[in-house]
Amino acid sequence: MNIIINGFLDRRTNHIAQKVLSSINVETFIFTYNYFKPNFGRLNSKAILINWRKINFMGNYDIDFNKLEPLDEDLVDAMRKYESIFMRMADRLETFKNYSYRERKSLYLKHLRYWNDTIEKKKIDLFLSQNVPHETSDFVCYCLCKLKNIPTIILCQTHIPDTCLIFDDWENTDYGLVDEFKKLKTKLSRIKIDRINLSPRFEKYYLLQTDKSKNITPFYMKKNSLIKVGTKKIQAICRKLKENPTVYFHEGGLICRSLARRSIDKIMTKILMNFYEKNCTEFKPKSKYIFVALHVQPEMSTSPRADVYVNQIMIVQLLAACAPKDVKIFVKEHPNQRALGRTKEFYQDILSLKNVSLISRKVDSKDLVKNSLAVATCVGLVGFESLFQNKPVLMFGHDFYQYAPGVFSIRTKSDLENAVKQINKGSTFKPKDFKIFLKAMDNISINGTTDSDYLPTSSLTIKENTLNIAQAIIKKNRKISEKKCLNII
């Protein structure tokens, strides 16, 4: 088997990749690394290691491109949809420098040429990703695999602690969830809501979310003291130096440019957010409104997961056009949004729309959810949490909870018009049905953490986490192999 492995960049998650590789018969595997080159032991001779920073920021694969197969019109045309997503996704590269249209296009074509040549010549059988591909180069590789009907396995962290899902397509995150939900709805139809049993981690999350006296803030939204932030950064630097003592010498230019741009971005963010706050309208809880919770950008939640709605102004424009005249649209900026990913013109476009108002970032989103008719989001946590409060959600992206009761998946203007009509008539859903959905999710999910940022809050040991996730990947790969055998027969 020949595999492309995306992610698993640090030592805590790299164990997962090592466990999977040791359990299958692998001929060649391609692995992108960040600050340190991983040691795969006896499998080192089968590894092709690529520096993630070099390829992402510069398209430098350390090879002679003249030896690669050239691109042609058919392939470029077949990838046209994904090219447009890539061009916006490249915003995330601008922590390093500005990328013009020509530079983005050049990077895209380099990635396309390298991965097309590699997939064909190395006879790739599987693409395995730690997360939804969203770092530009990995997205191109993933899309090529889909185009060539090469199996893909994607892991995805959910909002519930120590819980992740496994699927094969970021646009279709079902993987048995819908069938399990339908089955449980029939099975539990006569069972009272308080008799529906969840696993300890799901039950704990459910109780926290339904307890209206508690205001829960996700760990990544909490503001830490300067001392705590500084300590974490020093620890990260020490860890990187321990893993690779020369890392800051080899990548000094990248790091210096990035630090300089972040300093400028802080100043520009302050100016931009001052403009935003000056143009906010006072929040009136008794108003009849739909709450739009903007996503921080650039991020995976909108690129690729929101597809065309990565342009969040389109969401607001659609709502302004489809909502009844007596329903206002309240738009709140994400607390972590920076100047990178947002412009003054974006806010001006919102302000130009009738019945649309900007709401201060100081207003608690819980209050905006509580008094709203519905919540509009791409794939955000605010949408998932709203369901616990029995609030309908207008989802403009692709995520696991798009299949939950109370969620309206929006792709077209017609979808939104129908959804708004139902919501305005008082359409709601049964809390019991949502708890059954959680039960279905509980049954098919993996008890593990795939996102490194979530590991400090995990209740699992690294060994337990590695084993749970690796076993799920191996099981999924076995099913893929069995399906291949059946197709051959």
Automatic annotation (TrEMBL):
<dbReference type="Pfam" id="PF05159">
    <property type="entry name" value="Capsule_synth"/>
</dbReference>
<dbReference type="GO" id="GO:0000271">
    <property type="term" value="P:polysaccharide biosynthetic process"/>
</dbReference>
<dbReference type="InterPro" id="IPR007833">
    <property type="entry name" value="Capsule_polysaccharide_synth"/>
</dbReference>
<dbReference type="GO" id="GO:0015774">
    <property type="term" value="P:polysaccharide transport"/>
</dbReference>
<dbReference type="InterPro" id="IPR043148">
    <property type="entry name" value="TagF_C"/>
</dbReference>
<protein>
    <recommendedName>
        <fullName>Capsule polysaccharide biosynthesis protein</fullName>
    </recommendedName>
</protein>
